[in-house]
Structure formats: C-alpha cells, structure tokens
Amino acid sequence: MHILVCIKQVPDSAQIRVHPVTNTIMRQGVPTIINPYDLFALEEALRLRDNYGGEVTVLTMGPPMAEDALRKALGYGADRAVLLTDRYFAGSDTLATSYALSQAIAKVGETFGTPDIVFTGKQTIDGDTAQVGPGIAKRLDLIQLTYVAKIPSVDLDAREIKVERRCEGGAQMLKSRLPCLITMLEGTNEIRRGSLEDALYAARSQVLRWSAADAGIDDLTRCGLRGSPTVVKRVFAPTARAEKAALIETPERNLRDLADELIAAILTRGPALEQELAFNGGE
After folding, report:
1. CB neighbour list of residue 59: distance below 8 Å, 6 or more residues apart
2. Within 10 Å of residue 173's Cβ, how many Cβ atoms?
3. Fewer CB within 10 Å, N- or C-terminus of the chain?
4. Measured distance CA(8)–CA(124) in Å, rounded
C-alpha cells in the first residue's frame, strides 16, 4: 500500500507577521513548525503502514527551508519526502495550492506508484480554511472522507476502507472504495517518538526537490498570485472590548436558580435578544 501525506510548514502562530501591502504572511525570520493538524494525519498513515505494509511518502509545497519539516517527518518514520518548491508558487491561495499539489501527487504516482490513500490534516493554523484537502480530492477525482476520527480497518483485497467521521449530532461509520483522500481530525492519535534508526535515516536521506517543471505543471497561470483569485482586503487585530465579564457566584446554590440568574443577566445586556425570542415564540 502506498500512502501519501500532505504536510505544511507553518509559522509559529504566536509570532505571525502580515505584509502591510500584499496582506500575505511574512515568513522571513519567523520560527516554523509542522502544521499540528498534519501530525495527526502523518501518525495515522504510519499506523496503517505498520499494520498493512507499504510505504509512506510525505509531500509539501513551500520555500527551500520547508525541507526542515520534511526531515522531521522522515524522523518520525516516513519512507520518502518530496518538496515542491518554485518561485512560481509564491503567494498561492487554497485554489492555486490544491492545483499545484494535485499535479505533484499525480507525478508521485507516476514515479513511485499511485497512492491508495492521500492524507491531509483537517486544516492549517495559518489559513484555517480546510479547503486544500477537498480541493485536491476534486482535482484528482478521489473519494473524500473529511473530519475522520478513526480508521477501524482497510481491506486491500476488496479495495475498501472503513472510517469513523465526526458530523453534526454525532458520528458516521462509512465504508468507501480506494483510492481516497482523508482529512484527519485533531486529537485522534498521538505522534510517535521516532527511533534512533529513523533519526539516522532522516539525516542521510535525500529530500527530492521538484520545481513546477519537475512536477509536470505546464499551466503556470494557475499557480502563485496569478492563479489565486482570493483577495485579502484588510488584515487587522481585533480591538479589546472595554466591557468586562460578569462573575456570578455559585457556592451552595441550586442549578435552577443559577440558570434563571444567568438568563436574566444575558437578557439585561442584550434586550434585543429578548425581543427576538418573544417574536419567534420563545419563552
């Protein structure tokens, strides 16, 4: 089984800076980490490989320094790493990113074998859109299984996979065909501690560097800023509220009295809410 995991090297969220003109994230001089959501996807891929055999390829798109994230992934136990890096990718939004990654995944399939499962994290901490994974699935015509919390089994002979995904109101147990794309939820597992052998392998392994041409991307107008229809009008930090939170004392009081007092406090602060509830038939 061949499993591919898309990861992203992201700025440490505590030290993000935004360019005042382009409204894009400034990465120079900002410490970077592997997107935390992607670590859950990577661990699940490694677990499936350990249980069913095969290889795990890790792919990222970014500047040359993104190789650091790939070497960390190799240190966790991944078998192969590919860095998609080219100046044409600078400033990509989710549409341009999903296009470039889908082309690179197709190239990985031609070179190392078509992936049976493509993993991504639920979203990234710098964009928070959760659009890239589904975008890749659409471009590659893959079945997409989003917000997956658990993978009970994979039947390679029948080419089927069973997953548990979170949804509004509970969970769904789904059976799907392979190949597919899976976006993993946070908190579903814990990334392993890489072995000494994995660390040595990561240090001496070659990270493949692919340009747009190497990945077979012919239409460069669909990459980078030119291929990104998203326009950020303004980036700003929200102003702190002047009004402070109210504290309701709770010792030796029953829940009904506390609930009544809380509702009364909410309606006092928001009289329009009381009118809206009355209009909609609320009591």
Report:
1. 4, 5, 6, 7, 81, 82, 84, 101, 104, 105, 108
2. 10
3. C
4. 8
Vertex 240: Cα angle to 20 and 123 (nearest 5) = 60
| CA separation for the pair 144, 19 (Å, rounded) | 34
Three-state secondary structure readout of 132-182: HHHHHHHHHCCEEEEEEEEEEEEECCCCEEEEEEEECCEEEEEEEECCEEE
- Show Cβ contacts of residue 13 under 8 Å, excluding neighbours closer than 6 positions: 125, 126
Q: From CA 73, how far away is CA 144, in angstroms rounded?
A: 23
Label residues 96-123 b or e (16+ Cβ within 10 Å = b): bbbbbbbbbbbbbbeebeebbbbbbbbb
pLDDT tens sequence across 219-277: 999 999 889 998 777 776 677 777 777 777 777 778 888 888 888 888 887 777 767 77
> What is the token pair recorded at 71?
């070497």
**C-alpha to C-alpha distance for 195 and 14, rounded to whole angstroms:** 30
Cβ neighbours, 10 Å, residue 237: 6
55 touches 3 (CB < 8 A): yes
Predicted model pTM = 0.78
Nearest 10 degrees: CA dihedral of 26, 31, 36, 39?
A: 120
Q: Which residue has the tokens 């597919």?
A: 180
Q: Is 76 exposed, middle or buried (0-12, 13-18, 19+ CB in 10 A)?
A: buried
Domains of the chain in start order, with CATH, are 2-222 (3.40.50.620), 241-283 (no CATH)
Backbone angles phi, psi at 116, to 5 degrees: -80, -35
C-alpha span between 165 and 167 (Å, rounded): 6
| Average pLDDT score, the chain | 88
What is the tens place of the pLDDT at every residue in 220-232? Answer: 999 998 899 987 7
Task: State the Cα–Cα distance between residues 16 and 35, nearest whole angstrom.
Answer: 14
